[in-house]
Amino acid sequence: MDMFLTSRRGAALAALAFVAACAPTTPPPAPLPPPSPGLERITGQPAAAATTMLGAPTLDRSEPPGRMLQFARTQCVLDVYYYPPTPGAVPVARYAEARKPDGKPTDAGACAQAIAVVAPPAPVAPAPAVTPKAKPRS
């Protein structure tokens, strides 16, 4: 009887190992390509970077695990696609595409630069006045 149990355990372990080896694995994400000019502050960053640079999106579509933010402006429409670099991680911008209002494709980096929210420069505090020191009398 012991031999029967041992052989059944061995067969069960072998079957389990076979099934585990056949289980699909998630391949690691492809490395991000270098960002296009104009997209340096967005590519590889979470959505907050795009909303800081471009303002509020006109469309925020979630299709887990991905997300798409659309920034439709008079100059162009920019779609930024977000995916987590690893399962469960915060999604980052992996890809962007743009089109003119008439639907013709345009450069995504140029579109991002054209629609970037221009923040006024931070006020610069005036430098403290420096009074020359009097020379000691001898």
Plain-language structure description:
This protein starts with a helix and ends in a 23-residue tail after the last helix. It contains 3 helices and 5 strands. A hairpin with an 8-residue loop joins strand 3 and strand 4. Strands 1-2-3-4-5 form a 5-stranded antiparallel sheet. The longest helix has 21 residues, at 2-22. It has a domain at 47-115. With 138 residues, the chain is of the alpha+beta class.
Helix content: 25-40%
| Approximate strand percentage | 15-25%
Indicate the low-confidence ranges by residue numbers: none
**Physical arrangement of strands within the biggest beta sheet:** 1-2-3-4-5
Descriptive tags:
five-stranded antiparallel sheet, 138 residues
